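#structure-requests
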Amino acid sequence: MNYRRLIVILFFLIPFLSFGQNTPADSTHKNNWLDDCDGKVFVKVENPPSIKNGPVVLSDSISNYISRKNISFKDGTILFMFVITMKGNMLEVRNPGRYVPNESILKEALLFYSGMWVPARQNSYIVCAYARCEMKFENNKLTIKAY
């Protein structure tokens, strides 16, 4: 009699345990795209992503971040491309150009100050869009151009 009860209880519990709603650990990247961008990323928009307080403030912030790491860069221009989501997050930061020593520090700085970006707008709706950030080092001074 006790075995029958045990079998009936297991019969009802096994589907609950085996078909639980668990999300896999590696799905966070996909969820960011799906949640933040609704599956769409615009290449051209009416109002592209911009920097909240202007490029001078961002260049000063990144310069301070770099100086705290005790790293200097040679004179030249570095281009970074990334996606600004509807929530203002930055995804897929990459440098399509030549190899740059300590490039990871610049990526860290961009991600650290990603909250300074305003998302793009298309037809008065906030959308995800690709953005570019050109960093120009000249005489240990950084200037940033965003487009």
